Each structure stands twice: as C-alpha cells, then as structure tokens.
Automatic annotation (TrEMBL):
GO terms for cellular component: outer membrane-bounded periplasmic space. The chain crosses the membrane at residues 15-35. This is N-acetylmuramoyl-L-alanine amidase. The keyword Nucleus does not apply. SMART domains: Ami_3. Residues 60-70 have a biased composition (Gly residues). Keywords: Hydrolase, Membrane, Transmembrane, Transmembrane helix. Pfam families: Amidase_3. GO terms for molecular function: N-acetylmuramoyl-L-alanine amidase activity. It comes from Streptomyces nigrescens. The keyword Membrane applies. GO terms for biological process: peptidoglycan catabolic process. Residues 169-297 form the MurNAc-LAA domain. CDD domains: MurNAc-LAA.
C-alpha cells in the first residue's frame, strides 16, 4: 500500500483542501442542529424578542391596544376620548321632594318660564326616576373615563335639591362640553313602551339660541339611539317619535339654554310593568350605561 508522500505535489494539495472543506461542513452542520433545536424548544433564539401574548399584540387603529388586552391594564385608560369633555345630567334629584318651594320657583328658559325642577316619576313599586338616573349616570361616567374622557356631572347626589334646569344647561356651557346628555325615564301610561331621544328644536328667544347646536345635537341623538337600541335590546318608543326613537322639543330649558351639543334620553316608561322590570334591573342598567357610552363615543370620534 502506498502513502500520500508518493503523490505528486498538486494532488497532495487537492487532498488537503478536500479534508479541510469536509471538516468545515461537518462542524457547521452540527452547530446548526444545536441552534435550531434550542430555537424551537429552549426559548427564544438569540437576538429575537420573546413571542408576545396574543392579548398584548392585539391593537386597534394607530397601534393602540384594543379593549380587553393586557395593554389596557398596563397603560391606563384607553385614549379614544382623551381631551373630550362629556357632561352627564342625572334628571331630577332624590331630595327634590323635600324642597317643594325651592323647585317650584320659576326660571327663564328663553321662550317661557318653567319650574326650577320637578320630583320626576317612579315605578308602581316606588323606584324613583331620580335614583335610576343617578345610578345609570355613575355607571356611564366610569365607562367614559375608561375611554379617557373628562366627565362632569351636574349633580352626584351631593345637593339638597336641583340644580334648576337653567343651571343644568349652564354647567355644560361652562365646561365647554363636546357632548352633553340629560338622562331621564318617562312616566306615561301602561302599554306605552320603549326609549326615545329628545332633540333641541331651533329656539332663538331671550337667553336661548340653539341655532348652532341643532345639527350636531341631532347627530348625537341619532348615534345615541342606534347604540342604545343595539346594546340594551330595547325598542324605540311606540308612543313618541313615530318609531324613530327621536323627538324634537322647544319647551325644555336644559336644551333651549345649551350652547353645546345636547340631548335628553328617556330610557323607558317607568309606569309600564315590562319597561319597569328592565329599569329596575341592575344588569340592564349596566347595558344602558354601555349603550350611552358607545353612542357618545360614536359621536365624538365620527
């Protein structure tokens, strides 16, 4: 058997190169196998971030975290309504009945004079409209604040009575509200069911001038009616608004004296047993608050 030393120089050089090349291939293949295995089973590969939780990677328009994702907990309130001011006006006051003389005082609403406020209505079992409105408004406040809005209440159960209807409008005006909502429940006859949104009519009389807010208030009302219906499952009123869920009035000081987009929402009829069953149910009131929040959000982010 002959050895390599007897080969010509050019053949010895070629053999050496082949041996070196084979060693490089074997070493490289072994390293790749180790690297590949660690990348699949041993955590993230070097130079790559760890895979994110699906909830953390879910984003909405502009890269903001979507509701329910971890990002909403880690980064505070979602900013969909950041910079927006919303005024919520819980209709009436639980203590109005104790101040009959004060709330009977007449105030100027532009085209007439009316009582400062009233006691509101109640279900046949005694659940007061004023208690209902305050509960739903507080729920809506929480939801709107989670969206980043600044929320101003005309009263939070912290006043002996009122405020009067003219002051309720003025609170929204002074806050330069982007949207204002006065919340109520109706006191019509049994069999009259459903919600309706009251829009401001055009009134230019005395201190009242709604010319600038009629259009945007209608847009607010339409979006509010649509979302309230979708979330609560309630039908539009069968006795006001011709099935549209919208009504227009010129006799409400809270609308006549407003200089910001504003509507009233009558959430249902407290004197109808079926509507009353909804209005007295805490789960339904939470849906009402969510419908209100979504309607206002639709209007402010249109």
């Amino acid at each position: 058997m002959s050895n390599g030393s007897s080969l010509p120089p050019h053949r010895r050089l070629r053999g050496t190169l082949l041996v070196v090349l084979a060693s490089v291939v074997v070493a490289g293949l072994g390293g790749w196998l180790v690297w590949h295995a660690s990348g699949r089973d041993g955590g993230p590969r070097a130079g790559q971030p760890a895979p994110s939780d699906p909830a953390e990677s879910a984003t909405g328009p502009g890269g903001s975290h979507t509701p329910g994702g971890k990002g909403s907990k880690e980064h505070g309130p979602r900013a969909g309504l950041k910079g927006k001011v919303v005024v919520l006006d819980p209709g009436h006051n639980p203590h109005n009945g104790e101040h009959g003389r004060e709330i009977a005082r007449q105030v100027d609403i532009g085209n007439a004079r009316k009582e400062c406020d009233t006691t509101g209505t109640a279900t046949n079992d005694g659940y007061a409209e004023a208690s209902f409105t305050l509960d739903v408004v507080r729920r809506a406040r929480t939801l709107l604040q989670e969206q980043g809005a600044k929320v101003v209440l005309t009263q939070d159960g912290d006043r002996p009575y009122g405020p009067c209807v003219d002051e309720r409008a003025e609170i929204g005006n002074k806050a330069h509200a982007d949207a204002a909502l006065s919340l109520h429940a109706d006191g019509s006859g049994a069999g009259n069911r459903g919600f309706h949104v009251i829009l401001p009519a055009r009134v230019t009389d005395g201190p009242a001038d709604t010319a600038a807010i009629v259009g945007p208030s209608r847009q607010l009302g339409e979006r509010l009616a649509g979302r309230f219906r979708a979330v609560t499952g309630s039908a539009a009123s069968n006795y006001i608004g011709g099935g549209t869920g919208l009504d227009k009035r010129s006799d409400l000081g809270g609308l006549n004296l407003s200089t910001v987009p504003k509507v009233f929402l009558e959430c249902g009829n407290m004197r109808d047993p079926k509507d009353a069953a909804q209005l007295t149910d805490a789960d339904w009131r939470q849906k009402a608050a969510r419908g209100i929040t979504e309607g206002i959000t639709d209007f402010l982010t249109r």
